[in-house]
Prior knowledge:
There is one protein chain. This protein is α/β, with parallel strands linked by helices. It has three domains: 3-150, Rossmann fold; 164-208; 219-300, no CATH class. Helix content is 43%, strand content 12%. The protein contains twelve helices and seven strands. It has helices at residues 17-26, 50-58, 77-89, 118-129, 132-151, 164-175, 180-187, 191-197, 225-232, 238-245, 264-273, 287-300, and strands at 3-7, 31-35, 64-67, 93-96, 219-224, 248-252, 255-262. The strands form two sheets. Strands 2-1-3-4 form a four-stranded parallel β-sheet, covered by helices on one side. Strands 5-7-6 form a three-stranded antiparallel β-sheet. Helix 1 packs across helix 5 (132-151), helix 5 packs antiparallel against helix 10 and helix 11 packs antiparallel against helix 12. The model is unreliable at 204-210 (pLDDT under 50).
Amino acid sequence: MANLVYKRVSTDQQSTDRQNLVLDEAGIEDAVVFEEQAGTSSRLHPLERPKFGELLAYARPGDTVHISEMFRLVRGTGHILDVLDVLHRDRLALRIHDGAFSAMDLIARHPRTGELLSTVKFMVQTLAAAGELQRDLQRELTYDGLRAAEAKGNKGGRRPAVPADKTDAVRTAYLEGRSIAALARDHGVSRGAIRTAVADLLPEHTADDQGAPVPELPVTLDVPGKVADFLRAAELEPVERTALDQGVTVRRGQGYTLRVTAVPATHRRLLELCQALDGGQGTPAVPAQRKARREYANRVSTLAGDTL
Protein backbone atom coordinates (compact mmCIF):
# COMPACT_ATOMS: atom_id res chain seq x y z
CA MET A 1 0.00 0.00 0.00
CA ALA A 2 1.41 3.38 -1.04
CA ASN A 3 1.90 6.51 1.08
CA LEU A 4 0.83 9.54 -0.96
CA VAL A 5 1.95 12.94 0.37
CA TYR A 6 0.15 16.13 -0.69
CA LYS A 7 1.68 19.61 -0.26
CA ARG A 8 0.48 23.09 -1.17
CA VAL A 9 1.26 26.73 -0.37
CA SER A 10 -1.03 29.68 -1.02
CA THR A 11 1.45 32.16 -2.52
CA ASP A 12 4.70 31.96 -4.45
CA GLN A 13 6.42 33.84 -1.61
CA GLN A 14 5.89 30.88 0.71
CA SER A 15 7.78 27.60 0.97
CA THR A 16 6.87 24.10 2.10
CA ASP A 17 9.48 24.17 4.89
CA ARG A 18 6.88 24.00 7.64
CA GLN A 19 5.00 21.14 5.98
CA ASN A 20 8.25 19.28 5.39
CA LEU A 21 9.10 19.55 9.08
CA VAL A 22 5.76 18.08 10.17
CA LEU A 23 5.85 15.31 7.58
CA ASP A 24 9.49 14.45 8.27
CA GLU A 25 8.68 14.11 11.97
CA ALA A 26 5.90 11.67 11.01
CA GLY A 27 8.43 9.25 9.52
CA ILE A 28 6.41 8.40 6.40
CA GLU A 29 8.03 5.52 4.52
CA ASP A 30 8.50 5.42 0.74
CA ALA A 31 6.40 8.54 0.22
CA VAL A 32 5.16 9.48 -3.24
CA VAL A 33 4.93 13.28 -3.19
CA PHE A 34 2.41 15.41 -5.06
CA GLU A 35 3.16 19.12 -4.64
CA GLU A 36 1.02 21.85 -6.19
CA GLN A 37 2.71 24.65 -8.10
CA ALA A 38 3.52 27.50 -5.69
CA GLY A 39 0.63 29.90 -5.32
CA THR A 40 -2.18 27.47 -6.19
CA SER A 41 -5.27 29.30 -4.96
CA SER A 42 -6.84 28.26 -1.67
CA ARG A 43 -10.22 29.22 -3.15
CA LEU A 44 -9.90 26.58 -5.88
CA HIS A 45 -11.87 23.47 -4.94
CA PRO A 46 -9.45 20.70 -3.87
CA LEU A 47 -10.88 18.33 -6.48
CA GLU A 48 -10.01 20.91 -9.18
CA ARG A 49 -6.36 21.34 -8.18
CA PRO A 50 -3.98 19.71 -10.72
CA LYS A 51 -1.69 17.80 -8.37
CA PHE A 52 -4.47 16.54 -6.13
CA GLY A 53 -6.17 15.28 -9.26
CA GLU A 54 -2.96 13.47 -10.22
CA LEU A 55 -2.80 11.97 -6.73
CA LEU A 56 -6.33 10.60 -7.02
CA ALA A 57 -5.58 9.17 -10.47
CA TYR A 58 -2.41 7.50 -9.15
CA ALA A 59 -3.98 6.11 -5.98
CA ARG A 60 -5.19 2.56 -5.55
CA PRO A 61 -7.58 1.14 -2.91
CA GLY A 62 -5.83 0.84 0.42
CA ASP A 63 -3.36 3.69 -0.17
CA THR A 64 -3.01 6.45 2.44
CA VAL A 65 -3.09 10.18 1.68
CA HIS A 66 -0.87 12.21 4.03
CA ILE A 67 -1.12 15.97 4.65
CA SER A 68 0.57 18.08 7.30
CA GLU A 69 -2.59 19.97 8.33
CA MET A 70 -6.19 19.98 7.17
CA PHE A 71 -6.06 23.53 5.79
CA ARG A 72 -3.42 22.51 3.23
CA LEU A 73 -6.12 20.56 1.44
CA VAL A 74 -9.41 22.31 2.32
CA ARG A 75 -10.66 25.64 3.66
CA GLY A 76 -14.33 24.99 4.40
CA THR A 77 -16.93 22.45 5.47
CA GLY A 78 -18.21 21.81 1.95
CA HIS A 79 -14.73 21.07 0.66
CA ILE A 80 -14.03 18.67 3.52
CA LEU A 81 -17.16 16.62 2.91
CA ASP A 82 -16.60 16.54 -0.87
CA VAL A 83 -13.06 15.24 -0.40
CA LEU A 84 -14.12 12.67 2.20
CA ASP A 85 -16.79 11.33 -0.15
CA VAL A 86 -14.20 10.85 -2.92
CA LEU A 87 -11.65 9.22 -0.59
CA HIS A 88 -14.37 6.92 0.75
CA ARG A 89 -15.46 6.05 -2.80
CA ASP A 90 -11.89 5.20 -3.82
CA ARG A 91 -11.22 3.40 -0.50
CA LEU A 92 -8.28 5.61 0.41
CA ALA A 93 -7.17 6.38 3.96
CA LEU A 94 -6.49 9.96 5.09
CA ARG A 95 -3.82 10.84 7.65
CA ILE A 96 -3.58 14.41 8.98
CA HIS A 97 -0.40 14.80 11.00
CA ASP A 98 -1.03 17.98 12.99
CA GLY A 99 -3.84 20.27 14.12
CA ALA A 100 -7.40 19.91 15.37
CA PHE A 101 -8.31 17.08 12.95
CA SER A 102 -5.19 14.97 13.46
CA ALA A 103 -6.75 12.64 16.06
CA MET A 104 -9.83 11.82 13.95
CA ASP A 105 -10.44 8.90 11.60
CA LEU A 106 -12.22 10.93 8.95
CA ILE A 107 -13.09 8.03 6.65
CA ALA A 108 -14.34 5.55 9.24
CA ARG A 109 -16.81 3.12 7.69
CA HIS A 110 -19.77 1.29 9.14
CA PRO A 111 -18.59 -2.30 9.82
CA ARG A 112 -21.69 -3.82 8.21
CA THR A 113 -22.72 -1.46 5.38
CA GLY A 114 -19.31 0.00 4.56
CA GLU A 115 -20.80 3.50 4.37
CA LEU A 116 -19.01 6.58 5.64
CA LEU A 117 -20.18 7.06 9.22
CA SER A 118 -22.68 9.85 9.66
CA THR A 119 -20.97 10.66 12.95
CA VAL A 120 -17.83 11.56 11.01
CA LYS A 121 -19.74 14.08 8.94
CA PHE A 122 -21.34 15.43 12.09
CA MET A 123 -17.97 15.87 13.82
CA VAL A 124 -16.49 17.61 10.78
CA GLN A 125 -19.44 19.97 10.50
CA THR A 126 -19.32 20.71 14.22
CA LEU A 127 -15.59 21.45 14.26
CA ALA A 128 -15.76 23.60 11.14
CA ALA A 129 -18.78 25.52 12.43
CA ALA A 130 -16.95 26.12 15.71
CA GLY A 131 -14.10 27.70 13.77
CA GLU A 132 -11.60 24.94 14.52
CA LEU A 133 -10.34 24.88 10.93
CA GLN A 134 -9.62 28.61 10.91
CA ARG A 135 -8.12 28.54 14.41
CA ASP A 136 -6.02 25.59 13.29
CA LEU A 137 -4.78 27.68 10.38
CA GLN A 138 -3.98 30.66 12.59
CA ARG A 139 -2.18 28.62 15.23
CA GLU A 140 -0.17 26.49 12.82
CA LEU A 141 0.92 29.39 10.62
CA THR A 142 2.23 31.18 13.69
CA TYR A 143 3.63 28.43 15.91
CA ASP A 144 4.86 25.90 13.38
CA GLY A 145 6.17 28.65 11.13
CA LEU A 146 8.56 29.61 13.90
CA ARG A 147 9.50 25.95 14.42
CA ALA A 148 10.39 25.57 10.75
CA ALA A 149 12.40 28.79 10.76
CA GLU A 150 14.30 27.73 13.89
CA ALA A 151 15.04 24.34 12.34
CA LYS A 152 16.80 26.19 9.50
CA GLY A 153 18.63 28.48 11.94
CA ASN A 154 16.55 31.55 11.13
CA LYS A 155 15.04 33.94 13.61
CA GLY A 156 11.30 34.43 13.32
CA GLY A 157 9.32 37.65 13.45
CA ARG A 158 8.82 40.67 11.24
CA ARG A 159 11.65 42.83 10.04
CA PRO A 160 11.94 46.23 11.76
CA ALA A 161 9.86 48.79 9.91
CA VAL A 162 12.61 51.39 10.40
CA PRO A 163 15.69 50.30 8.37
CA ALA A 164 18.84 49.84 10.41
CA ASP A 165 20.68 52.53 8.46
CA LYS A 166 18.03 55.09 9.45
CA THR A 167 17.64 54.16 13.10
CA ASP A 168 20.39 56.53 14.30
CA ALA A 169 18.84 59.43 12.41
CA VAL A 170 15.43 58.68 13.93
CA ARG A 171 16.88 58.52 17.44
CA THR A 172 18.82 61.76 16.97
CA ALA A 173 15.74 63.56 15.67
CA TYR A 174 13.70 62.27 18.60
CA LEU A 175 16.29 63.54 21.09
CA GLU A 176 16.18 66.92 19.36
CA GLY A 177 12.47 67.14 20.10
CA ARG A 178 10.88 65.71 16.96
CA SER A 179 7.59 64.01 17.87
CA ILE A 180 6.86 60.36 17.20
CA ALA A 181 3.97 61.32 14.93
CA ALA A 182 6.18 63.63 12.87
CA LEU A 183 8.93 61.02 12.58
CA ALA A 184 6.41 58.43 11.43
CA ARG A 185 5.26 60.79 8.67
CA ASP A 186 8.85 61.64 7.70
CA HIS A 187 9.84 58.00 7.25
CA GLY A 188 6.53 56.60 6.00
CA VAL A 189 6.19 54.06 8.81
CA SER A 190 3.81 53.49 11.69
CA ARG A 191 4.13 55.28 15.01
CA GLY A 192 4.67 51.89 16.63
CA ALA A 193 7.77 51.39 14.46
CA ILE A 194 9.19 54.72 15.64
CA ARG A 195 8.42 53.88 19.26
CA THR A 196 10.31 50.60 18.81
CA ALA A 197 13.33 52.41 17.38
CA VAL A 198 13.46 54.83 20.35
CA ALA A 199 12.12 52.49 23.03
CA ASP A 200 15.03 52.97 25.43
CA LEU A 201 14.74 56.74 25.12
CA LEU A 202 11.04 57.01 25.92
CA PRO A 203 11.20 57.20 29.76
CA GLU A 204 13.52 60.22 29.61
CA HIS A 205 11.58 62.01 26.89
CA THR A 206 7.92 61.41 27.64
CA ALA A 207 7.24 65.13 27.60
CA ASP A 208 8.67 65.46 24.09
CA ASP A 209 6.40 62.72 22.74
CA GLN A 210 3.36 64.89 22.23
CA GLY A 211 2.48 62.95 19.11
CA ALA A 212 2.01 59.63 20.89
CA PRO A 213 -1.37 58.30 19.79
CA VAL A 214 -4.28 57.46 22.04
CA PRO A 215 -4.80 53.68 21.86
CA GLU A 216 -7.31 52.78 19.18
CA LEU A 217 -10.65 51.41 20.32
CA PRO A 218 -12.25 48.48 18.46
CA VAL A 219 -15.01 49.31 16.00
CA THR A 220 -17.56 46.98 14.42
CA LEU A 221 -17.96 46.94 10.64
CA ASP A 222 -19.88 44.61 8.34
CA VAL A 223 -17.55 42.84 5.91
CA PRO A 224 -19.42 41.64 2.77
CA GLY A 225 -19.42 37.87 2.46
CA LYS A 226 -17.44 37.85 -0.81
CA VAL A 227 -14.73 39.90 0.85
CA ALA A 228 -14.77 37.68 3.96
CA ASP A 229 -14.45 34.54 1.79
CA PHE A 230 -11.44 36.05 0.00
CA LEU A 231 -9.76 37.07 3.24
CA ARG A 232 -10.27 33.68 4.87
CA ALA A 233 -8.24 32.13 2.05
CA ALA A 234 -5.46 34.71 2.39
CA GLU A 235 -2.35 34.49 4.55
CA LEU A 236 -3.13 36.73 7.52
CA GLU A 237 -1.34 37.85 10.63
CA PRO A 238 -2.68 36.26 13.84
CA VAL A 239 -4.53 39.42 14.94
CA GLU A 240 -6.23 39.66 11.53
CA ARG A 241 -7.16 35.98 11.51
CA THR A 242 -8.55 36.25 15.04
CA ALA A 243 -10.71 39.23 14.05
CA LEU A 244 -12.27 37.18 11.23
CA ASP A 245 -12.64 34.06 13.35
CA GLN A 246 -14.55 36.00 15.99
CA GLY A 247 -16.80 37.74 13.47
CA VAL A 248 -20.55 37.19 13.62
CA THR A 249 -22.26 35.93 10.47
CA VAL A 250 -25.37 37.88 9.49
CA ARG A 251 -27.47 36.25 6.78
CA ARG A 252 -28.76 38.57 4.06
CA GLY A 253 -30.93 36.84 1.47
CA GLN A 254 -28.76 34.29 -0.33
CA GLY A 255 -25.56 35.91 0.92
CA TYR A 256 -24.17 37.11 4.21
CA THR A 257 -22.00 39.71 5.89
CA LEU A 258 -19.44 39.09 8.60
CA ARG A 259 -19.72 41.53 11.50
CA VAL A 260 -16.10 42.07 12.52
CA THR A 261 -14.98 43.95 15.61
CA ALA A 262 -11.38 45.17 15.42
CA VAL A 263 -9.26 48.28 15.83
CA PRO A 264 -9.28 50.59 12.77
CA ALA A 265 -5.72 49.59 11.84
CA THR A 266 -6.82 45.97 11.43
CA HIS A 267 -9.81 46.96 9.26
CA ARG A 268 -7.50 49.04 7.08
CA ARG A 269 -5.08 46.13 6.74
CA LEU A 270 -7.88 43.71 5.80
CA LEU A 271 -9.08 46.19 3.17
CA GLU A 272 -5.56 46.44 1.78
CA LEU A 273 -5.26 42.66 1.54
CA CYS A 274 -8.35 42.36 -0.67
CA GLN A 275 -7.13 44.96 -3.18
CA ALA A 276 -6.86 42.14 -5.73
CA LEU A 277 -10.66 42.04 -5.96
CA ASP A 278 -10.48 45.29 -7.96
CA GLY A 279 -8.56 43.46 -10.69
CA GLY A 280 -5.33 44.52 -12.32
CA GLN A 281 -1.99 42.93 -13.23
CA GLY A 282 -3.65 40.74 -15.82
CA THR A 283 -6.34 39.50 -13.43
CA PRO A 284 -9.88 40.45 -14.49
CA ALA A 285 -12.14 41.76 -11.76
CA VAL A 286 -15.36 39.95 -10.90
CA PRO A 287 -18.02 42.70 -10.69
CA ALA A 288 -19.72 41.26 -7.60
CA GLN A 289 -16.40 40.96 -5.76
CA ARG A 290 -15.31 44.44 -6.79
CA LYS A 291 -18.61 45.87 -5.60
CA ALA A 292 -18.27 44.03 -2.29
CA ARG A 293 -14.78 45.40 -1.73
CA ARG A 294 -15.93 48.94 -2.46
CA GLU A 295 -18.74 48.53 0.05
CA TYR A 296 -16.20 47.55 2.67
CA ALA A 297 -13.92 50.41 1.59
CA ASN A 298 -16.77 52.87 2.10
CA ARG A 299 -17.33 51.55 5.62
CA VAL A 300 -13.64 51.68 6.47
CA SER A 301 -13.43 55.25 5.13
CA THR A 302 -15.85 56.38 7.86
CA LEU A 303 -13.17 55.61 10.46
CA ALA A 304 -11.35 58.64 11.84
CA GLY A 305 -8.44 59.79 9.72
CA ASP A 306 -9.12 57.56 6.72
CA THR A 307 -9.17 58.93 3.19
CA LEU A 308 -9.73 56.11 0.74
